[in-house]
Amino acid sequence: MGHGSSEQIVIWNAMIRGYAFNGPFQECIQMFDEMPHRGLKPHNFTYPYVINSCCELEMYGKGKRVHCEIVKSGFESSYAVANSLLNMYLKMPASFVAGLADR
User: Fold this and answer.
1) Which pLDDT score is estimated for 1?
2) Taking the domains of the chain in order of start, what are their residue ranges?
């Protein structure tokens, strides 16, 4: 699977960012989920918007799965990514943090 052109990544990130800021937040997550099917690989400019959209929708289970992708891709040390993850875990109910609930 290719990594897509840098121009395509920029366009997709701009659209994801737009949905993350203006809604509907679900569209942000759907576009993120579609990226691998289009041969596009998310990066440190993609993940913060997706994590924030998961928080807005209280989709903490999805946020934790995205966190796993972030670790696998090596972007957890990116300032923006780390900040969005911190924000998510601060907002997350204790039952999600403990793994007792998944939504």
Assistant:
1) 39
2) 6-97
Among 66, 23, 27, smallest CA distance to 47 is for: 66
Q: What is the DSSP string of the chain?
A: -----HHHHHHHHHHHHHHHHHS-HHHHHHHHHHGGGGT----TTTHHHHHHHHHHTT-HHHHHHHHHHHHHHT-TTSHHHHHHHHHHHHHS-HHHHTTS---
Q: What pLDDT digit, counting tens, does each position of 25-73 carry?
A: 999 999 999 999 999 999 999 999 999 999 999 999 999 999 999 999 9
pTM of the model: 0.86
> Which residues lie below 8 Å from residue 70, measured CB to CB, with a gap of 6+?
47, 76, 81, 85
